[in-house]
Amino acid sequence: MNSASVALTTDRAGTGALEGKGVDVRWLNCTAEVEGVGATPSSPAPSASARQVAQVDCRGRTVGGKDITLAGKITKEVNGLCVRGDLTGRVGDRTVLQADGLGDCDAAPSTGGVTPPTKGGGGGGGGARPTVTVTVTLIEYPGGK
Q1: Which of the chain's ends, N or C, has fewer CB atoms near its CB within 10 Å?
Q2: CA-to-CA distance for 19 and 81, rounded, in angstroms?
Q3: pLDDT tens-digit readout, 93-125
Q4: pTM score, whole prediction
């Protein structure tokens, strides 16, 4: 599991889940930090059986100008299609989403890369969406924790 894929997948799946709950999402930006990343070379590597957890924090805005937050712990990210964990989505003061997973974990993984948004001709901007920005935070502890 890596921070960038967790952040991007949560952004995409979270936007879809919020819109499915009737939230008119203008934009959403997610950051993620995988616990245990940034270990020093003298630290032992986590075992294959160790369960990695990522903290994810998404901030955004509705078309109507209300603040959106989506935050929680991610225990699994699958091929950019879904995340599993414990997530809470809020619009303003209201909780609109409580989920243990977002996206479609049963979908077959695609063989292609990310499809960039198409640039439409003409003006108006109807339906235009901002690009996704992924921020990765890596914390290194000199000499251990």
Answers
A1: C
A2: 16
A3: 999 999 998 988 886 655 544 444 444 444 444
A4: 0.66
